[in-house]
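retry 2 of 3: previous attempt timed out while embedding adenosine-5-diphosphoribose. Reduced batch size to 1 and resubmitted. Inputs unchanged:
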Amino acid sequence: MADEGLDALEAAADCLARARYAIALTGAGLSVESGIPPFRGPGGLWTKHGEPPMNGFERFLADPAKAWADRLNPQGPMRELWVALSSAEPNPGHRALVRLEELGVLQSVITQNVDDLHRRAGASRLLEIHGNATLIRCLGCIARFPRDAIDFAVLPPRCPQCDGLLKSDTVSFGEPIPPDVLERCFEEAARADCMIVAGTSATVYPAAQFPFSVAERGGELIEVNPYPSDLTSLCRFALRGPAGEVLPRLAELVAARLG
Ligand code: APR
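retry 2 succeeded.
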């Protein structure tokens, strides 16, 4: 059973301060206080509009020109998401994780978010397992380009390096996670003896597998989430509250312990 409450916050700070290799796994909940809705739970995009079709990648490959036209002119729930992403700023939760990295406590952050907010907050050891919405990726050579480096006059756009088919870097449902990122995520999870799990329902794989691999090897899980999740029973500490409030307090307590 996970410890909750103030004592849990202090004990979680002890756990982080003495960790040999601590990492974090984050999800949509971390960006809720930046104005981006989550997908599931209260106020979730899929809760409101229903889960999207699980064959997004297949549909992209079937007609990449149409998929690009839709992407460049999003409608429905995707429009809501892209509008929120375009005006979002990092919040104190993102910055607290950067502080833990600067303290030498957090070795890496694996995020499921495509919103670029960790990077903009200053995270330097970041693994974006579902990609980054500001980048375009080649399905051939896996090169990634900033959006404004690509000409969309002719759809689908082609890779300036290998003429391969270009796709948004965000990973579609049914698309394999790019191997360069996936391998590093597994390596980080295999090394960790402590993991902060912030703002995720831990329902989407392979990301949801990482906390299990840490716990199976006796590592400690620290959940930061206003609500219980599928992971809570596995967690040593369950810090209930918005990540933008809990993570800065946790970072403060860790900093105090490191003196
Ligand atoms: N602070 C911390 N956690 C929060 C906050 C908050 N302010 N607000 C909500 N949460 C929690 C919710 O309780 C929920 O457990 O964040 C979680 C969000 O869960 P999801 O919406 O399922 O998001 P996530 O786990 O990131 O989804 C995984 O699913 O749809 C795909 O590709 C998408 O990357 C996404 C993946």
